[in-house]
Amino acid sequence: MLDKEKDIDAVTISTPDHVHGPAAVYAMERNKHVYVQKPITHNIREARILTELARKQKVVTQMGNQGGSNPLLKMVQGWVDSGRVGKISEVKVWTNRPVWPQGIEMMKPDPSKKPNDLNWDLWLGPASSKPYTPNLHPFNWRGWWEYGTGALGDVGCHLIDIPFRTLGLKYPKDAECSIGSVYTKMWNADYFPEGCPPSSLITLNFDSTVKNNSPIQLTWTDGGIRPPHPEIIPANDDIGGPNSQNGVLMIGEKGIISTNINDSSPLTPKLYLYNGETEFGPETEKMKEPEYGHQRKWVDACKAGFNSKEHLELTSSFDYAGPMTETVLMGNLAIRSYMLRKENSKGKLDFFARKKLIWDGNNMEITNLEEANQFVTRTYRDGWKI
């Protein structure tokens, strides 16, 4: 279509995660501006490709993490920049996701249930060819690695965005994880490596930054597992958002910053200092336009052109969203590596990759476990490789 319709200037991409990268590359190679839903890609290599291709083709880009345009982020940024909480050394991020089937066996194919108007082969995109499988389309694909990116891919870009942006984080130095297990048989945990786990704990370590002169350890938990309630925050106060279901805690020398998930929910930034001072943002937000104008600002930037004032003011162009997405997807690389196993000398299967993974972000490489590097990218079906 883009080759035939010459008057198309820009494309929005809201497919399942596994098609984000190929669709965006196809459009950008034809000099189309692109708006891509979060995460911008299914894997780290694709994110790097999109970031570099946007510069090469001089196209205007934006990722669909609309909370990046929330004006209340300036309140959080001000607390960090002014040193109100001192040096920040720990960040806790958590979510109640997944809220879709996950950690279970893949559903059985049943071509007889395919909707007549669904082009299943096109929907599969770069994923392996297989018969129509019910309950993947339109939403439950999120819990399967061939198509989705799990809880991290769903809301990581809404949550990790807050510390990544306000602390000026770069690539993590390392990643490690553990995951929740389900036992339907005594002593033998269910093993479904093709699917995302029911819950996980991810730890990422970062060097100090220009905005925060301290190394930072970021932990992510999903599956409804949240961090302990800090002593400084009154016991009856939520941490993060309502009912403490999703949130971010940035823990500094002088106090703690608490926020909700930064999608279109109220951010509810809160500052608690050890000297007893507090400062709270509003509990509700009145948007002047939908989703803080995140999409409209991209349209304005497309009209103004690459490197225009409007373009440079975008809050999630791929120059920012690419490295942030890579960081989010590092968690998934750790999870998938954690599930690797191979046969030992006694003929039993051992998990051999349950270790801290050392990350060379510039070269996109795990340096202490070669087998983990398969998850930097993916296997592509013929005709879909980028």
Describe the protein in words.
Helix 5 (150-159) runs antiparallel to helix 9. The chain has two domains: 10-66 and 290-317, NAD(P)-binding Rossmann-like Domain (Rossmann fold, 3-Layer(aba) Sandwich); 71-103 and 135-287 and 322-363, Dihydrodipicolinate Reductase, domain 2 (2-Layer Sandwich), CATH 3.30.360.10. 24% of the residues lie in helices and 17% in strands. The protein is globular. The strands form three sheets. Strands 11-10-9-8-4-7-6-5-14-15 form a ten-stranded mixed sheet, covered by helices on one side. It is built from nine helices and 15 strands. The protein is of the alpha+beta class and 386 residues long.
CATH topology call of the largest domain: Dihydrodipicolinate Reductase, domain 2
- Highest-level CATH class of the largest domain: Alpha Beta
Adjacency order of strands in the biggest sheet: 11-10-9-8-4-7-6-5-14-15
Structural class: alpha+beta
Number of helices: 9
Question: What is the CA–CA distance across the termini?
Answer: 19 Å
Radius of gyration over C-alpha positions, nearest whole angstrom: 21 Å
Number of strands: 15
Count of all domains? 2
Strand/helix succession? EHEHEHEHHHEEEEEEEHHHEEEE
Mean pLDDT: 97
CATH superfamily of the largest domain: Dihydrodipicolinate Reductase, domain 2
